[in-house]
Structures are given as structure tokens and as C-alpha cells.
From TrEMBL:
Keywords: Membrane, Transmembrane, Transmembrane helix. The keyword Transmembrane helix applies. The keyword DNA damage does not apply. The lineage of its organism: Archaea, Methanobacteriati, Methanobacteriota, Stenosarchaea group, Halobacteria. It comes from Natronococcus amylolyticus DSM 10524. The chain crosses the membrane at residues 12-29, 36-55, 75-93, 100-118, 124-144, 206-228, 248-272, 284-300, 306-327, 339-359, 419-436, 448-467, 473-491, 503-522. This is Glycosyltransferase RgtA/B/C/D-like domain-containing protein.
Length: 659
């Protein structure tokens, strides 16, 4: 019997009540494990469900809300443009993105969101707002790229200085036949093509290709959202995605994940399009093209696309079989249309991905064989409920990590870091509850809801069991695209149904806190962390990069097979990764630094950042585990010789007397 025959049952209110119960059941988990999402998600779920239940018991008529005056609405675009000019000026004068830069950026973001939410229909101009959003995305990202001498991030060094450069010099993919990206080379080929077309360096080729593509890709979110909601709310979805922390990160840490995100956004748009309008074979051909492109770009992005297509197929099954009564559409809301059959596209994607992964080399095996082996090991050895990885630790020896003390700032920063995500999560929850109502149910919105739900399982659910094989941090930007669209639907629902006072309060909270929260998150400022005592800087100044090159020249860049274990180079994390990934000293690892003790290694590299900002050291043999600010003498001992010192970086080796 279909649930549609049970008349008193409303799917949306039933789901909201179930959400409230789930929030109450999950709340006690905070007493068994200390983790930011365990502490906050139950509260956000409870608030979101309560707001929705409050909204559905009020009239669904459009509310009259306060709006900006016409002169104010006309002046704001000019003020925002001046604000962006000030952002550029401050960056140029100070040589980096300082806290002042992020304060100005937050104000500009607030003014942008204010225009979207508080202008009247007469003064709302989507073209002007979209132009401001794209311009703001360019300014916020390219100021980071401009002030960084090298690259921002960790993986980008491998992709650019090893893989892309090898293909560029040898003019053949055979140069990387040993690497897993041999089976997914689109990113590297795209950068090389841009380098040749513009006749610039590989670094500039990267910025003129992916660097430009990332800010422009936010327009695809608008195109997708506008198929579901009016222009104002589609613009809001674009704004929420544009300033989202992980979206920004992949706009400055430019790697295959960045290109995979662009293809994913295009697939989201194409899927919604075929579900919402009359489609042709050309639309499906476009989906096939995008599917092949993402498979040849990035493995994790491919898996995320498979999750989305699986969600679309599941939505199709729900509408075709009608177990929830979803086949009864209200034609005044959505026109009646048979669900789009996506089984062929899903099978094609899955089959091609498995085929390519089976042929892709990785760790002396195929990529597919290696990752399945790792997953099996995780299930056997470390998986279990609340088996959470300790922050910053890479091993299981939690007791070996020194307790450096916890300050009030240490307790506040994690919540600031997650503020934007939690707000977006709450709005997405409200939007999801709204669209599961039978009168508003449709395959396209169900695809977004199911897709985001399944992705949240990989991002938040599996890590609760100690399963992080799917690299959850790579999923957030993809998830944000779906959350932004559903979140815009959710905020539109609340603005229409709630009384004006709580709506205005809610909109003000979004306008004032969401942009600032996302831009203050560590992922938005890897080049110059706002909370430098809490988050490591994933970019290096000119003296630090010069030291890498010079030390590589001095030592001859010995490979691991050429040196003994005591000749291994040691420095902090993440600085060690630059030596490894540029080939300057491939056998480099983290300093083992006992609490209040001294590093006992023969070959160490000290930099002043280690004593001033967050950098990571190890207290055992299992890698970087805790942040410390050691003095120079604890790293480069007085009994060692200093063979290189440029004022910021010092290279110490055993003294002749010791030898």
C-alpha cells in the first residue's frame, strides 16, 4: 500500500518531527566524544526542524518585508566596487592578505548579500549583482595568488613542479606513466595548453586557465538554481556558493580537484535541465561528454559524480514506483512529467570509471586495486563507532601527543571556522523539508536532496566510524553547490511563511555572519591564516622558497636510496612537503620534537615561522602530530654547524667535531 493513501501523513512535517527526535537522540553524543560536528549538528538540526514546523503552521502568502530605499539600492554597487578596490590596495601595500583585508572583505560580502535580500523587486537587477559577485570572486582569489611567490597549498607542488613540468618538457604523457594521473591528465594538459597559447610560464599558465575558470564557474550555480527558483534566490545561491570556504580554497589551491569541481557544477546544471524542461539527445550527449571529462580529470571528483547520478536514479525509482505517493504532482506547482530515465547514464559512468581505474597505475598496483585494499584494511583494523581521528594527529598514538594547553581562543576558533557551514546546513535542511511535500516533489529537487544527503554520509557519517578513505575534505565544495541551491529554497520558504519580525532577524543574521564566517574559515585563507596561531600557512615567502632551492643545490637533491636513515632531512610540517614535492630533498620528514625537549636529528631546517605561527611537529615516528612554537635552539642545536642561513631559514648539519 502506498503511503499516499494515508491521508493524515504529510511527508514534510513527518520528516521535521523525525528530525527533532533525531536531534534529541544525537545530542548526548557530546558526552562520549569531543568533535565539532557532534557538538553542533544536533543543535542545528533541531533549530532547522523547529523553524520549518513553525513556518508550515502560518499562511503561505508572500510577506511584505522592509527593503532598502531606491537611492541606497542604487548607491550600493558603487560602494561595493570601491570596497573591492580598497581590498586590492590594502593587499598591494601590505604585501599579503592581512586581517584588515579579511575585515574589509567581510564588509563587502555583507553589502553584496544585503543587496540580494533587501532590495525591492523594482531595484533588484540580477545582471549587476552577478557582475559584482564574479568581480568579488576574482578579487578575493587573485589577491592571494598575486602576493604568493610560489604556489598555495600542498598537492599543487606535485602537480606543477613534477607532473605538469615533466609532460611539458617531454611533450608526452609517457613522462608520467608511473603516476595515477596518467589515467586522468586533463588538468595538466589544460595548463600546458594555456602556457603555450599565452607564451608564459607554467605558473602563469595555471593562473590564466584554472585561476580564471574557478571564479567564473559560480555562474553555473546561478544557471542551475534559476531552473528551480526565481532570479533573486538563484542569485543568493550563487553568492552562498561563491564565498563558501572550500569553494575559495579550490580557487587558490589549483589542482585537479578544482577542474573536477567545474565539471561537477556543469553536470548539476545539465541534470536539472533535462529533468525540468523538454530535452533532446543533444542534452544527453552533453552529459556524456561531461562524464568522460571528469573521469579523465580526477578520481575523487568522478566518485562524487557517481554519487550524484546514483541519487538521480534513486529519485527516478521513487517517482516511478510511487512508494511515498510522489507520483501525485500538483500541476499548479510543477507540470506533470514522467521521471527522466538515467540508468543508462549511470551504468555508462560506472563502467567507464571502473575500466579507467583498473588501468591506472598507483602504488605498484592499479588505482582500483590499491584503494579497495586500503578500504579493506580500514574496515578490519581501525573502523568503529566514534573512532575519531585526533585533530592534527596522523597516527593512533594519541597519548604520545604533548598537551600544549587550551586557551579560550583555541575553543572559539573551531566554531568560527565552521560557522558558515553550519548556517548553510540549517538552510539546506529547511529547503529539503519544503521540497519533500507531495505538492512540491519533483525528480530534480529530490536529486539534490538525496545527493546532498548521501554526500553528507561520506563527509560527516563515515568519519564518525573512523572511515576517512574517501578523503571527506575533498567533498565539501561539491556538497556546497547542492546545499546552496537547496538552502536558497529553504530561506525563500521561511521568508514567505514566517511573520516579518523573525524573518528580518534571520535575514540579518545571514547577511552579517555568513560571508564573514566563510571568509574567516581556514580554508578561505591558506596563504595567510587569520588565526595564524591555530592554522598553518600553506604558502611560503621568497626566502623560504630560496632556501629550498639552495639546500637542494648544496646537497645534490639525494634520493632516498642514496642516503642513510640518519641523513634524512627534518623540518616542520607543512614545509617538509615543499622539499619532497619539488625534489629538492626527496627524503624529508617531520621533526620529532619532544615536549620541552630538543630535536635529535643530524640534518634539520629551521625557519622563523616555526617560532611565531602554527607549524606541526611529531612526538613519535608516526609523522606530524601537534603544533608548537619552539625556539631556534630546540631545532638547530648549538652542537650543530649552520651551513646555510638567509635570516629566515637555517640549515643545520652535524659539526666536524662530532664526526
Amino acid at each position: 500500500m502506498s503511503l499516499s493513501n494515508v491521508r493524515p501523513l504529510r511527508l514534510d512535517t513527518t520528516a521535521a518531527i523525525a528530525g527533532l527526535i533525531a536531534a534529541l537522540l544525537l545530542f548526548p553524543l557530546r558526552f562520549f566524544a569531543s568533535q565539532i560536528y557532534i557538538n553542533t549538528i544536533p543543535i542545528v538540526v533541531g533549530l532547522g526542524c523547529a523553524l520549518y514546523l513553525l513556518a508550515v503552521h502560518q499562511n503561505e502568502n508572500e510577506r511584505t518585508l522592509p527593503t532598502l530605499s531606491t537611492p541606497a539600492a542604487m548607491a550600493l554597487p558603487s560602494i561595493v566596487t570601491v570596497g573591492m578596490a580598497v581590498m586590492i590596495l590594502v593587499t598591494v601595500l601590505q604585501g599579503t592578505r592581512t586581517p584588515l583585508f579579511f575585515a574589509i572583505s567581510s564588509v563587502v560580502g555583507t553589502l553584496l548579500f544585503g543587496q540580494i535580500l533587501f532590495t525591492s523587486d523594482r531595484d533588484f537587477h540580477r545582471g549587476i549583482l552577478l557582475f559584482q559577485l564574479v568581480l568579488f570572486a576574482f578579487v578575493f582569489r587573485f589577491t592571494a595568488l598575486y602576493t604568493t611567490p610560489g604556489y598555495i597549498g600542498i598537492d599543487v607542488w606535485t602537480h606543477m613542479t613534477e607532473l605538469t613540468q615533466a609532460v611539458y618538457l617531454e611533450q608526452s604523457l609517457g613522462a608520467i606513466s608511473y603516476d595515477k594521473h596518467f589515467g586522468s591528465p586533463f588538468f595538466h594538459l589544460y595548463v600546458i595548453a594555456s602556457t603555450l597559447v599565452y607564451d608564459v610560464s607554467l605558473r602563469m599558465g595555471l593562473y590564466l586557465s584554472m585561476g580564471i575558470a574557478m571564479p567564473l564557474s559560480i555562474l553555473v550555480v546561478y544557471a542551475a538554481a534559476n531552473l528551480l527558483v526565481p532570479a533573486r534566490w538563484a542569485t543568493l545561491a550563487t553568492a552562498m556558493f561563491s564565498v563558501a570556504s572550500y569553494t575559495v580554497m579550490w580557487g587558490v589551491h589549483l589542482i585537479p580537484t578544482s577542474m573536477g569541481l567545474v565539471f561537477f557544477l556543469a553536470i548539476v546544471y545539465a541534470l536539472i535541465r533535462v529533468m525540468r524542461i523538454e530535452y533532446t539527445s543533444r542534452d544527453f550527449a552533453f552529459l556524456v561528454f561531461l562524464s568522460v571529462a571528469v573521469i579523465l580529470t580526477h578520481q575523487i571528483s568522478t566518485f562524487i559524480v557517481l554519487v550524484l547520478l546514483g541519487a538521480a536514479f534513486l529519485a527516478q525509482v521513487l517517482f516511478m514506483t510511487g512508494p511515498l505517493g510522489l507520483t501525485r504532482l500538483d500541476t499548479s506547482v510543477f507540470r506533470t512529467k514522467k521521471p527522466v530515465n538515467l540508468i543508462g547514464l549511470l551504468v555508462f559512468n560506472f563502467g567507464l570509471a571502473i575500466f579507467v581505474w583498473s588501468l591506472t597505475p598507483y602504488r605498484d598496483d592499479s588505482f582500483l586495486g590499491t584503494v579497495l585494499g586500503w578500504f579493506g584494511e580500514t574496515l578490519e583494523e581501525s573502523a568503529g563507532f566514534l573512532e575519531l581521528a585526533s585533530p592534527g594527529a596522523t597516527g593512533d598514538e594519541d597519548a604520545a601527543v604533548p598537551d600544549t594547553g587550551t586557551t579560550v581562543l583555541d575553543q572559539i576558533v573551531p566554531y568560527v571556522n565552521e560557522l558558515g557551514f553550519l548556517m548553510l546546513f540549517g538552510l539546506m535542511l529547511v529547503g529539503s523539508l519544503y521540497v519533500v511535500h507531495r505538492r512540491r516533489a519533483e525528480q530534480s529537487v529530490f536529486t539534490l536532496v538525496l545527493g546532498s544527503g548521501i554526500m553528507l554520509v561520506f563527509v560527516l557519517g563515515l568519519p564518525m566510524f573512523g572511515i576517512e578513505n574517501f578523503v571527506p575534505t575533498r567533498w565539501f565544495a561539491f556538497l556546497y553547490a547542492l546545499m546552496a541551491i537547496i538552502g536558497a529554497i529553504g530561506l525563500r520558504t521561511l521568508s514567505r511563511n514566517l511573520s516579518p519580525a523573525p524573518v528580518v532577524a534571520l535575514l540579518l543574521v545571514i547577511v552579517l555572519l555568513y560571508p564573514a564566517g566563510m571568509m574567516l574559515a581556514a580554508e578561505s585563507n591558506p596563504d595567510s591564516p587569520v588565526f595564524s596561531d591555530q592554522h598553518e600557512r600553506l604558502a611560503y615567502d621568497q626566502s623560504e622558497l630560496a632556501a629550498v632551492d639552495t639546500i637542494g643545490d648544496m646537497t645534490g637533491s639525494p634520493a632516498g636510496s642514496e642516503i642513510t636513515p640518519d641523513q634524512q632531512l627534518h623540518t616542520d610540517h607543512p614545509y617538509q612537503t615543499v622539499f619532497e614535492r619539488t625534489g629538492a630533498y626527496p627524503s624529508t620528514t617531520s621533526i620529532i620534537l619532544p615536549e620541552d625537549g630538543y630535536a635529535e636529528h643530524d640534518y634539520v631546517v629551521y625557519r622563523t615561522t616555526q617560532s611565531e605561527d602554527a607549524t606541526y611537529f611529531s612526538s613519535a615516528e608516526d609523522g606530524p602530530g601537534y603544533s608548537d612554537n619552539p625556539t631556534e635552539e630546540r631545532i638547530c642545536r648549538t652542537t650543530q654547524s649552520s651551513v646555510y642561513d638567509n635570516g629566515d631559514v637555517r640549515f643545520c648539519t652535524p659539526s666536524p667535531a662530532q664526526e
